[in-house]
Amino acid sequence: MKIFINDIPVYIRKYSADIFRDDYDVIIDEDLISTPSKKLIDDVLVTNASNEDIDHLLKLMTQKKFRHLDAVTFTVRKRRDTVIFIKKKFKVILAAGGVVMKDNKVILIYRRKKWDLPKGKLKKKEAVVIGAVRETQEECNIKVKARERICTTWHTYLRNGKYILKRTYWYEMVCLDDSKMTPQIGEEIEEVRWMDFDQTRVALYNSYRTVRHVMKLHYKLQTLIKN
Fold first, then answer.
1. Is 41 helix (H, G, I), strand (E, B) or coil?
2. CB-based contact 140:213 (threshold 8 Å)
3. What would you report as the CA-atom Rg of the chain, rounded to the nearest whole angstrom?
4. The domain 91-226: what is its CATH number?
5. Which of helix, strand or coil describes residue 23?
6. pLDDT for 20-46, tens place per residue?
7. What Å distances lie between residue 206 and 39, 202, 212, CA to CA?
8. Where exactly are the structural domains of the chain?
9. Model's pTM, two decimal places?
10. CA–CA separation, 215 vs 118, rounded Å?
């Protein structure tokens, strides 16, 4: 499982004594809770983590900006039980969106001073792919058709003092009609723009790690389809 907390990736992996420790800058084998937060920098590994360890750091990362922390990896004995524990800590919201393609270009939207991909919350009992198409069409005022699913991402945030865990499904999409393409102002979108590969690469420097993750998988999938 990979969760983005305050735009920092957190990995939950099965414990193994053979894990390659040289891949990490900071290794915590015990007593995470008493570890000063200033020591959490670069790539952090927490071995054989307990639910209490995970709960402590998830709350800390949600409430505080760790500007020098690149990623956290927890290794656990029972991965499935840990994933269930994490999900129960948060209210889970389902969302969906897509990477829209046309003539080797993709659509990015500019919202809250960052480049993003069109997406939004699913309606009650709404099929995931239908919601992905609906949200994409509404935010960009275009017509699209969904194709392959790219991936599913998880990220957390605070809303009215409550912890939210958002699960977002991402799809490849083709544009059917962009003749009336305009940003959905009600969703704080300032601009909708077609970008080629080089333009997208530059824009992603001012984006979210979740979006960069989705786009990386998108380009991999496109390469596989072409081959």
1. coil
2. no
3. 19
4. 3.90.79.10
5. helix
6. 888 899 999 878 888 888 888 999 999
7. 27, 8, 10
8. 2-89, 91-226
9. 0.81
10. 12
